[in-house]
């Protein structure tokens, strides 16, 4: 639409004015915000941008490919992919406590991203070409939440992005800081990003690791990824994507129960469907999904994912339950 075209043009102008001829990097998470911010900067300064995608192996089925193929095809951006799956699995081995999982993932992520950023900086050489800017997908509500109506929190972090070491300092480029989520999605559409990326439901940074109740292993991730993909596919097919806020699928990896599947008895794991409606994730209600849709999801998961022999439904509001199980 006209306004989206305006927003895009205005931001492109501003980004060009801010970055000039310098180099800039952007971390992609698989989420909407970083993708739209990256796409805007690419449109503004083209090859001066290098995107970095740390693949921690905790994304859902197809999401890493979305970044590596679809995002690149849609934007023409230069992408550096770091395959850190083994590293994250090693760091998470034996860990079951939810907050410990989050801490480990956050810590490893920063380390891997720093290393990648150093490589990009080194490859860019120096002088006028130095990498001086880092793109962040900060939205208007984040700006308000962090205490600065005029964005003081982030202006203060100018040349000192929280958490990065002294020898890696960047000035922030935040092209989404005046936008709300729905506007970001429209800008993403305007820029030609894939619909699955633009309309992606909220997904936690620690990813599937906090949807496996118990230790995170490669096998468990593979099981959950399949079950989650089926649930998402059926919700989309039923046209329910925009009616629900999100629908985590949770693998109770340490629980087993007896079932009959195919030609015999099995001793498999349950998954929990956690469909919720919400305005802002602070409170939520369980979504009253049609029985037919639930039945299809349950049948498909238990037929197609050998290790899962039960599908259960979480009917708890928030509070008292949180949306995620960890
Ligand atoms: P809860 O489970 O607290 O989740 O009701 C509220 C919203 O936040 C998301 N969530 C996270 N997002 N890192 C994130 O980036 C996290 O560690 C995290 N934990 C929960 C959750 O998916 C929901 O949308």
Automatic annotation (TrEMBL):
One of its GO terms (molecular function) is GMP synthase activity. Residues 2-200 form the GMPS ATP-PPase domain. Pathway: Purine metabolism; GMP biosynthesis; GMP from XMP (L-Gln route): step 1/1. It catalyses: XMP + L-glutamine + ATP + H2O = GMP + L-glutamate + AMP + diphosphate + 2 H(+). The keyword Ion transport does not apply. It comes from the Bacteria. The keyword Ubl conjugation does not apply. ATP binds at residues 29-35. Keywords: ATP-binding, Glutamine amidotransferase, GMP biosynthesis, Ligase, Nucleotide-binding, Purine biosynthesis. Coiled coil: none annotated. GO terms for cellular component: cytosol. Transmembrane segments: none annotated. Its EC number is 6.3.5.2. Homodimer. Catalyzes the synthesis of GMP from XMP. This is GMP synthase [glutamine-hydrolyzing]. It comes from Thermobifida cellulosilytica TB100. The lineage of its organism: Bacteria, Bacillati, Actinomycetota, Actinomycetes, Streptosporangiales. The chain holds residues 203 to 528 of 528 of the full protein.
């Amino acid at each position: 639409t006209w306004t989206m075209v305006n927003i895009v043009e205005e931001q492109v102008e501003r980004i060009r004015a801010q970055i000039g001829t310098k180099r800039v990097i952007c971390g992609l998470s698989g989420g909407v915000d970083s993708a739209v911010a990256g796409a805007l900067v690419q449109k503004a300064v083209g090859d001066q941008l290098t995107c970095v995608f740390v693949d921690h192996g905790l994304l859902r089925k197809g999401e890493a490919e979305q970044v590596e193929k679809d995002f690149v095809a849609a934007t023409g951006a230069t992408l550096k992919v770091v395959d850190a799956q083994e590293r994250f699995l090693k760091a998470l081995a034996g860990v079951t406590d939810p907050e410990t999982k989050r801490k480990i993932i956050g810590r490893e992520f920063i380390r891997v991203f720093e290393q990648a950023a150093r490589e990009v900086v080194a490859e860019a050489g120096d002088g006028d070409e130095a990498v001086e800017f880092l793109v962040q997908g900060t939205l208007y509500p984040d700006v308000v939440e962090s205490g600065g109506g005029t964005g003081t929190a982030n202006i203060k972090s100018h040349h000192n992005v929280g958490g990065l070491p002294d020898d890696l300092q960047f000035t922030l480029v935040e092209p989404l800081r005046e936008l709300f989520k729905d506007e970001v999605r429209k800008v993403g559409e305007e820029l030609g990003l894939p619909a699955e990326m633009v309309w992606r439901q909220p997904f936690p940074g620690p990813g599937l690791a906090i949807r496996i109740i118990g230790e995170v292993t490669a096998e468990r991730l593979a099981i959950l990824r399949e079950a989650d993909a089926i649930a998402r596919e059926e919700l989309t097919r039923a046209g329910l994507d925009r009616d629900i806020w999100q629908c985590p699928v949770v693998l109770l990896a340490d629980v087993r129960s007896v079932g009959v599947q195919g030609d015999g008895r099995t001793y498999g794991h349950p998954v929990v469907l956690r469909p919720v409606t919400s305005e802002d994730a602070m409170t939520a209600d369980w979504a009253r999904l049609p029985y037919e849709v639930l039945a299809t999801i349950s049948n498909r998961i238990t037929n197609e994912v050998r290790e899962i022999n039960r599908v259960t439904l979480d009917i708890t509001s928030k509070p008292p339950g949180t949306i995620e199980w960890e």
